[in-house]
Amino acid sequence: RVLAGPREDLAGRHVVVSAGGTREAIDPVRFIGNRSSGLQGYALARTAVARGAEVTLVAANVTLPDPAGAKVVRVESARQLREAVLTAAEHADAVVMAAAVADFRPVRQSDTKIKKSSAEPDPIHLVKNPDILAELGEVRRARREAYAARDAAGGAAGDVAAAGGREAGDGPGAATQVPGDGPHPRVIVGFAAETDDVLANGRAKLERKGCDLLVVNQVGENLAFGTPDNAAVVLTAEGGSVEISRGPKEDLADVVWDLVAQRLA
Ligand code: CTP
Ligand code: CA
């Protein structure tokens, strides 16, 4: 990459980044969690601020200092993260889901600390959490369809033209006329950590989730979790791929924003 001083190619854009890992409470003192440090998400937030974006950072259980210039929303569980991301995404141009979201949560959480007794412990029953990335993609698809249908019907042509091509936000008024109010960002980016069949799994995941870009990390060899370095392949919805060689998470973040900026241009 050519380092050409501070770029402002995300000026005027609102981007949402999720970072860290969710925690699913078992009782007031215990949770099911994961190893995400939040470093990659925070690097994404910092670099987006540096490139001129308005940044909302939804941080799940991250112990890093708030990045200067970003709006930070702190959450704990997957359901809280969903709420915060969907709300922020409503007026966003791009959403990058770098957070590690717990796939499952305990069906019930105890209001009081579970005590040890002479009996064997009860099993913890799990239930699926909502898939936030898939939901972002699904709501966008439904909204695009609704706008296209309204376009084709021609009836509310004036309103459609007024909203013309504006996908992010969809100004006041427009949103109320389209069924399924919801987030409609133009670029949706997912992350995936895979241990085997990295590319095939990544490709299937991108399609399943309906996102535009999927950053696929190979986990292991001291990469990814809690380290300053990362390496990845970015898969695109069109079937392309961009390799990012091992380097600082800031560099990976900049490549992601390069690809996002291209798609927003
Ligand atoms: N993700 C999400 N909501 C979930 C789970 C994952 O939004 N409940 C997002 C993550 O933030 C990430 C992407 O989906 O950007 C891929 O996460 P990953 O765990 O790799 O995908 P899963 O569909 O959960 O598949 P797997 O069985 O491999 O865990
Ligand atoms: Ca998962």
TrEMBL record:
Residues at which CTP binds: D103, K113, P130, D131, I132, L133, F191, K205, K209
Domain of life assignment: Bacteria
Domain DNA/pantothenate metabolism flavoprotein C-terminal: 10-143, 185-262
UniProt region (Disordered), positions on chain: 161-183
E.C. no: 4.1.1.36, 6.3.2.5
Region (Phosphopantothenate--cysteine ligase): 15-265
Signal peptide annotation: none
Catalytic activity: N-[(R)-4-phosphopantothenoyl]-L-cysteine + H(+) = (R)-4'-phosphopantetheine + CO2; (R)-4'-phosphopantothenate + L-cysteine + CTP = N-[(R)-4-phosphopantothenoyl]-L-cysteine + CMP + diphosphate + H(+)
Keywords: Decarboxylase, Flavoprotein, FMN, Ligase, Lyase, Magnesium, Metal-binding, Multifunctional enzyme
GO molecular function terms attached to this record: phosphopantothenate--cysteine ligase activity; phosphopantothenoylcysteine decarboxylase activity
Function: Catalyzes two sequential steps in the biosynthesis of coenzyme A. In the first step cysteine is conjugated to 4'-phosphopantothenate to form 4-phosphopantothenoylcysteine. In the second step the latter compound is decarboxylated to form 4'-phosphopantotheine. Catalyzes two steps in the biosynthesis of coenzyme A. In the first step cysteine is conjugated to 4'-phosphopantothenate to form 4-phosphopantothenoylcysteine, in the latter compound is decarboxylated to form 4'-phosphopantotheine.
Family under the similarity heading: In the N-terminal section; belongs to the HFCD (homo-oligomeric flavin containing Cys decarboxylase) superfamily. In the C-terminal section; belongs to the PPC synthetase family.
Name this protein carries in UniProt: Coenzyme A biosynthesis bifunctional protein CoaBC
Species of provenance: Microbispora bryophytorum subsp. camponoti
